[in-house]
Amino acid sequence: MLENDANELFTSSNNHYEPSDTWLIPLKSLDDDARAIHLGAVAELSVAPSQRRFVGDPLRMMLVGLEEESRLPYVIEAGGAAVGVLTLQSGAACLAGWPDDDSAWLLRGFLIDSGSQGRGFGTRAAFAAAEEARRLTVRLGGGQGGVVLSVNEGNPAGLAAYGKAGFVDSGEYLGGSSGPQRVMFKAFPVETAVNLR
After folding, report:
1. So what's the pLDDT on residue 192?
2. Which of 58, 86, 162, 176 is 20 to 30 Å from 129 by CA-CA measure?
């Protein structure tokens, strides 16, 4: 769930804000009961066999994210149902082949349920994640200039979704455990830097 300054629920698509059917639900912001309900929905997500080498178990990723202070786990929800997960992490951008840890948020553990793929949820959620990271940077004063991720070169759907969300290919990364990766980066708008001063 993304919140703007007026605490209205929004997500982003087509490079502008508009009410939508896709939200990011921040698990760390929920009470125990709501978190348990969302984690139950995450446990039902499935990963396509061809994608298992690119992503981990969705429930495990969310539980690890809840335990680590630097990770912010989100459930991607559309039409009232969980359709995926993602995590934003500060201080860890080198894990995606970025030259330093602190100048960018790391987008990791991103997956869309196999039964929900092909409907644009990945692109909308990637765009929304970058907007959420920008807001976190302004609110927390972290100084990050954007969001970085790495995506396996053998994952054309992921490459396409991130590209449509405004992420730019920044080169090859050979540090991943599942083969050559493409480093993709989405810079925050210039006004974010102005808001940090």
Report:
1. 56
2. 176
